[in-house]
Design goal:
Belongs to the GMC oxidoreductase family. This protein has 552 residues and is of the alpha+beta class. Helices cover 24% and strands 21% of the residues. It contains 12 helices and 27 strands.
């Protein structure tokens, strides 16, 4: 059997591509997903997102021991179901900063400057609050629902914004508009109180098309190459048996920043010495595959509240049942929101041209023992409420890599991010922690604040760094391992075609040359929207491009 296009991975990018490519008359599309369908109830309940970690819908990867983080192996959740990580993430809708994309183009990636990619953000978006926003930057016509939390909000969210303003951070009602810097409430990929993943928004409306085939629990073993061209995919049908499916036009790799480079290497595309070490026949010596791994890191500052106004108390069994009843009967209550509520983008130095620090705000605290696991909400204290401010590196300078553990596609890859390996990253997290502590002491929090939990209010820089090493986690935004560029170290060109191989593209977060300034799901969806036009040889209407080109 053969198809015109075979998409490997039904994650955030794969679902968008499946919709856009199958909308083209006369082409056949196959979408392959290693995980199962997105039937797990917790996927669709926004506040239940952490209950998805380390389950059947999570790849549940781990880093190698991290030398600069007390030797810890750090957990890396990745969605393994239809929708990928858009079915398991915290649903934050953040596009990044204009300068992120302008820098991509300046590095030799024509067509990826902000003015050129803004229409692709807009094409996806159906913003519920469009009337309140600048339509130059937003749309109400797309498939992906974007909204502020309208069905439940703690008073801590507004207190955080007010506290930021007290410390000199201006208010900003729209991080995805003209300016990113400032403090405000998050927008989310939520619709009618339920998660709006790319599987729900893009894939399911397209399933009725006869030219689209979706296969779940189909783990790709390798891409089949013939004389420098991708001609198909070999897929596991059992642990020892495989099936080869032919691609008439292109194979599109959308397996994410860990699995996309792994799949390329298993197919013989990568650093020749690494491939030979695992006895893989070298099809193309492409040393950049798996290199340039980047991810956002956050530390945590937690405060105990004086009353039950946050989310900790909703973790108690009877409160969970109450919240579930509200969700099931009316789609209201605390289960309709992300664990995040508010956010701020700040510049730690006045001369910077863009924010270098993000402050995620969550109306929940993690106690004072370092025993709480950010990715397992059941480990959080349940008898007293509080809040956490999570200072986050926007432009980490540490770089890592993804490698092969073996030539077996069922084995997890080696993931070595080298977190906090540069002094710049360590010092910026220290600066962010101090800023979060300052915000916690603002008058806006005085009516809610009982006491600081971690770190202690009076702590030396050495003590704060010890705190950071204990608590720091990834924001699960891995990017860069199939870097777009025009130099010898890049993996794909600006058309997202793998350099030196015909009929093969990579379309996911791994193509980012540098990480964007903010949560990565919306940018991945944008990448897929643009990729669909590149694959089909189309461009957005010239009138739209002329409009964005005149923006300042």
């Amino acid at each position: 059997m053969s198809y015109d296009y075979i998409i490997i991975g039904a994650g955030s990018a794969g679902c968008v591509l499946a919709n856009r490519l199958s909308a083209e008359a006369g082409v056949s599309v196959l979408l392959l997903e290693a995980g199962a369908p997105d039937k797990k109830l917790e996927i669709h309940i926004p506040a239940a997102y952490s209950k998805l970690n380390r389950t059947s819908v999570d790849w549940a990867y781990w880093t190698e021991p991290q030398e600069h983080v007390d030797g810890r192996r750090m957990y890396l959740p990745r969605g393994k179901t239809l929708g990928g990580s858009s079915s398991t993430n915290a649903m934050a809708y953040i596009r990044g900063n204009r300068t992120d994309y302008d820098a991509w183009e300046a590095q030799g990636n024509a067509g990826w400057a902000y003015d050129a990619i803004l229409p692709y953000f807009k094409r996806s978006e159906r913003n519920e609050q469009l009337a309140r926003l600048n339509a130059t930057y937003h749309s109400g016509d797309g498939l992906l629902n974007v909204t502020y939390a309208t069905r439940f909000k703690t008073p801590l969210a507004d207190a955080f914004v007010a506290a930021c303003m007290e410390t000199g951070i201006r208010e900003n009602h729209d991080f995805n508009g003209a300016e990113q810097e400032g403090a405000g409430l998050f927008q989310f990929t939520i619709k009618d109180g339920k998660r709006h993943s790319t599987a729900t928004a893009f894939l399911k409306p397209a399933l009725k098309r006869p030219n689209l085939t979706v296969r779940t629990q189909a783990h790709t073993k390798r891409i089949v190459l013939d004389n420098g061209r991708a001609v198909g995919v070999e897929v596991f049908t059992g642990k020892q048996t495989t099936e080869t499916i032919r691609a008439n036009r292109e194979v599109i790799l959308s397996a994410g920043s860990f699995n996309s480079p792994q799949t390329l290497m298993l197919s013989g595309i990568g650093a020749a010495d690494e491939l030979r070490r695992h006895r893989i026949d070298v099809q193309l010596d492409l040393p950049g595959v798996g290199q340039n791994l980047q991810d956002h890191l956050f530390a945590g500052v937690s405060t105990l509240a004086s009353s039950l106004i946050g989310s900790n108390n909703w973790l108690r069994p009877h409160k969970q049942l109450q919240g579930l009843w509200q969700f099931l009967t009316a789609k209201t209550g605390p289960l309709t929101i992300s664990p995040l509520e508010a956010n701020a983008f700040v510049r730690t130095e006045a001369q910077l041209t863009q924010p270098d620090l993000q402050l995620h705000f969550a109306p929940i605290h993690v106690g004072d023992t370092y025993e709480a696991d950010f990715y397992d909400i059941n480990t959080f204290p349940k008898n007293a409420d509080g809040w956490s401010i999570l200072p986050t590196l926007l432009k980490p300078t540490s770089r890592g890599y993804v490698g092969l553990r073996s030539a077996n596609a069922l084995d997890a890859p080696v993931i070595q991010p080298n977190f906090m390996s540069t002094d710049k990253d360590r010092q910026l997290l220290l600066t962010g922690t101090k800023l979060a502590m300052e915000i916690n002491q603002a008058t806006a929090f005085s009516q809610f604040r009982q006491r600081a939990l971690i770190p202690a209010e009076l702590a030396s820089d050495d003590e704060l760094m010890a705190h950071i090493r204990k608590i720091v986690e990834t924001v699960y935004h891995p990017v860069g391992t199939c870097r777009m560029g025009s130099d010898e170290g890049s993996v794909v060109n600006s058309q997202l075609q793998v350099r030196g191989i015909e009929g093969l593209r990579v379309v996911d977060a791994s193509i980012m040359p540098t990480i964007v300034s903010g949560n990565t799901n919306a940018p991945v969806i944008m990448i897929a929207e643009k990729a669909a036009d590149l694959i089909l040889g189309r461009e957005l209407a010239k009138a739209v491009n002329r409009q964005t080109a005149t923006m300042t």
